[in-house]
Write a structure and sequence with these properties.
This protein is about 30% helix and about 20% strand. The chain is of the alpha+beta class. The strands form two sheets. Strands 1, 2, 3, 5, 8, 10 and 11 form a seven-stranded antiparallel beta sheet that branches. The chain has a four-stranded antiparallel beta sheet with strand order 4-9-6-7. It comes from Niabella soli DSM 19437.
């Protein structure tokens, strides 16, 4: 199905990010915003993205036979390069402006997008901080997590440790059993609030690269479908990789970018720029 013109228009209408929103994001390094997308938009993109995931998915191993990471979700990348209808969501000014407003930058560009589908019966997503994987110079990064349906606690919505971007310990851990165990214990002895809440349809969260987050298991028979967009500052520069995962990310998501230079490649287009309205 094609995206209706009314929804394409909706994606270009600015969302009002308030001073209070920015202050809350700066304090906690995540925020949940209601009514970012209409029920109609969610229904359309749920169908379109689910069909594209089915087309791209190559996982055939039974859920019970996968490791913790494999049980957490099906993971497909850069759907914007495969499907023009999905591209309209990923490139929307509405979402891009929210990202730029929250980070208080002049513009944002693509790092990559990612569909995260937690199957019925799927396991937890362990505690982790995304920027462990990213060879990026600053912390001006933000991920939009867009659930494609109303997401009760039983489906495993995203959870956050508010303000945990201040923690240095655990930043050297990839996502898995070790990060879950270590960070669960580490966060228990802090004053950071663990936020576990359902998501309404059309509600979207935005979180920074160094805030720790996780998701519970999906105890329902249905799939928890979510689409994510990872934005970085328009002027973000590449740094020398600090681990093998950052080297892999450089090769995969920023091919041709040079250390010390702005990451301006065909894979990393500008998605919103205040100076090009």
């Amino acid at each position: 199905m094609a995206v209706p013109a009314t929804i394409l228009k909706e994606l270009e209408v600015p969302y009002k990010v308030t001073k209070e929103n920015v202050e809350a994001y700066n304090k906690n390094r995540f925020i949940k915003l209601k009514h970012v997308l209409s029920a109609g938009a969610i229904a359309v993109f749920n169908e379109i993205i689910a069909a594209q995931v089915d087309k791209m998915n190559t996982v055939t191993t039974a859920l019970a036979q996968r490791d913790t990471y494999g049980k957490a979700f099906l993971q497909l990348f850069n759907l914007w390069r495969e499907n023009a209808d999905i591209r309209s969501l990923i490139f929307s000014r509405r979402l891009g402006k929210i990202a730029a407003d929250l980070m208080q930058v002049e513009g944002v560009r693509m790092y990559h997008d990612q569909a995260l589908f937690k199957e019925g019966g799927g396991g937890i997503t362990p505690w982790h901080a995304d920027q462990y994987y990213w060879p990026l110079e600053t912390d001006k990064t933000i991920t939009a997590w867009i659930p494609l349906q109303e997401t009760p606690l039983e489906m495993g919505p995203l959870e956050f440790s508010a303000g945990s971007h201040q923690i240095i310990e655990g930043r050297d851990l990839s996502i898995g059993d070790e990060s879950e165990t270590f960070m669960e214990q580490r966060l228990k002895v802090t004053d950071f609030e663990h936020i576990i809440e359902p998501f309404d349809a059309g509600e979207v969260s935005f979180h920074s690269g160094w805030v720790f987050h996780r998701a519970g298991a999906n105890t329902t028979p249905g799939t928890r479908r979510a689409m994510t967009i990872i934005y970085m500052d328009r002027d973000m520069k590449l740094i020398a990789p600090k681990n093998k995962n950052q080297q892999l990310d450089w090769d995969t998501w920023c091919p041709g970018a040079a250390i010390g230079a702005v990451i301006n490649t065909p894979m990393n287009p500008v998605l919103y720029d205040r100076n090009q309205l």
